[in-house]
Design a protein that fits this description.
The protein is of the alpha/beta class. It has one domain (about 5-130): 3-Layer(aba) Sandwich (Rossmann fold), CATH 3.40.50. Helix content is about 45%, strand content about 20%. The chain has a five-stranded parallel beta sheet with strand order 2-1-3-4-5, with helices on both faces. Helix 3 links the parallel strand 3 and strand 4. Helix 2 runs parallel beside helix 3. The longest helix is centred in the N-terminal third of the chain and has 13 residues, at about 15-25.
Length: about 130
């Protein structure tokens, strides 16, 4: 299997959800890296360049603030500063917050969990072709 469609980082603390998304995207020939915590995700963006990041906003150790901690670190990271982010979260931000986050942190799309895997793949494909 060739991994030529792009490298994606999945930041999700729920192992089952993370594995399902990873399997679905690997089947579509994406190269996948996974991070369970904010710390793991920050380490990953310091060492690899990604074409797209899928981010759960509530990841340990910062809990509900985990996604924002990661987005702030990403905004100062030369390798991934311009990498688009798709947020998939059980706690969807209000519209005005979405707009602020989108402008500041290069968010492509914000989804509320649960999300259909097909919808996620379609959003990823659109983000990577823009």
């Amino acid at each position: 299997m060739s991994h030529d469609r792009g490298r994606i980082l999945i930041v999700e603390d729920d192992a089952e959800v993370r594995e399902v998304w990873a399997d679905v995207l690997k089947d579509k020939n994406y190269q996948i890296n996974e991070a369970r915590t904010t710390d793991d995700a920050i380490f990953a963006i310091r060492h690899h360049q990604y074409d797209l990041i899928v981010l759960d906003m509530s990841v340990p150790p910062a809990g509900r603030e985990g996604g924002l901690v990661f987005l702030r670190a990403k905004s100062h990271n030369r390798l991934n500063q311009k990498t688009p982010v798709i947020i998939v979260s059980g706690i969807a931000p209000k519209e005005e917050i979405k707009m602020t986050l989108s402008h500041k942190f290069k968010l492509y799309k914000v989804f509320e969990k649960p999300i259909d895997n097909k919808e996620l793949v379609q959003a990823i494909e659109r983000a990577l072709t823009n």
